[in-house]
Amino acid sequence: MDTRYGKEGTTSGIVYLVGAGPGDPGLITVKGLRKVQSADVLVYDYLAAGEIVGQASNHAELIYVGKKGARHTLEQAQINTLLIQKAREGKTIVRLKGGDPYVFGRGGEEAQDLRAAGVPFEIVPGVTSAVAAPAYAGIPVTHRDHASMVTFVTGHEDPTKATSSVDWSYLAACPGTLVFLMGVKNLPTISNSLIQHGKAPDLPAALVRWGTTPRQVSLFSTLGDIPMDAVKKGIKAPAVLVVGSVAALHTELGWFEQKPLFGKRILVTRGREQSRKMAEFITEQGGDPILFPTIEIVAPNDFGPVDEAIKHASTYDWIIFTSVNGVERFFARLFELNADIRSLWGPKIGAIGPITAQTLTKLGLKVDLLAKQFIAEGVLDALSDDAIRGKRFLIPRAETAREALPEGLKARGGEAHVVSVYRTVAPERTNVAHIVDLLTHKAVDAITFTSSSTVTHFKDMLKGENLGKLLDGVRLASIGPITSETLRKQGLPVDIEAEEYTVPGLLAALRKFYSQPQC
Ligand code: SAH
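That is the input. Now the predicted structure with S-adenosyl-L-homocysteine docked in place:
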């Protein structure tokens, strides 16, 4: 814990005012992320990305202080009191603020209160939405041919107020770009005031809502028309308004909204631990991954057969791994038994799928056989009858799985010994209610299934719901023919199927699907 001496000589904690970026969780600084990870207390509001909040350590206290329009969860003064109180308990506090803490975020006031209370603080600047939201909409706020200055303005003030601190005649005379934050409600008055004071009504103007997130909406118009256009397009807060000729550059420089999965909400049904990479890819392609783990990988009911197999590993001719989980669980057990990699001396090693093979290679094992087709049949096709007859095969895999491989081997005179190294079960804690809510509101575009068990568990978890209605309009994407077959058996349609039966193959299929013109 980072403790220092406060004003009165008492031990005090410290408050970090950390800029969280405007929405894309990747835009927090490295320093900011480190502070979040080491905080005892994390105080955040509604603009903070859930993914960043999720980086807090398990022992950290998470305090949501809200603030969405008029619905304040805690008043500003209460937030400041809370920060002071927690600091006086000697804690390290991170006050996460959207964008940059000192750009219209009341960060300055919070810091003043902390100083007055003798509580040490530090500022970790962030990427402000005033720059990032336009950038994601294809607008550079400065440009040598367009604007050599940029002004950030609060649009929250009522310009008709006698006490307004916004100087409209000055702003209207400003040659550079104007960026208004908190200006959606006052859009008509902002537009009128600027035009009245001399700005051209046909000056390009843009609004960017939820900038840098998969929910981003941008509107390109002119200063005169933008209030009406915003109403037509239903643009509400949070949004930034950009006024100036740079706003027209989006036609040339737009990039984010053109990403293949932009704005698509994609449900990921595989286990939580295996979902991370998939979620990263979806985000990278502009989509919004929603994690709905339908399976959890746990130990088999009985390790006896696995332990025996490990003990006698060198008596086999082949060990065939059918999945990454199979590899990971088999070796975890091998190491738990205090055995080492040399106990696998002798047998050849086969893998179904390139990712399974890679996992083996990382362990320093050479893969002798990689099936061309990434399903059990691929192994059978790759081996000649001579290579199977009279040979002993060890298959470490899930407790329940297809019998195609062992049966196929036996049918051709081989000896197949299946040992279960893990079981897939339904997760104990789930967010079913939330998912049903999203599906009911048609807020899901596609659902990915990476194995037959994700399909059957998904169906079990939504038992009692009207699946036909919930899934109407939702695209179901499958990793390969076996999973597709299970979907069809469960009465569910397959809209997208991977050409290569791997997770990257599934993601490529999604990308391809959404790159085609949608009807
Ligand atoms: N400190 C923040 C601004 C806080 S004021 C920053 O530096 O970005 C809140 C206003 O910021 C909102 O009303 C909106 O105008 C703007 N804003 C914040 N996040 C935004 C986003 N993702 N897209 C567009 N505008 C955003």
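The two ends are 56 Å apart (CA to CA).
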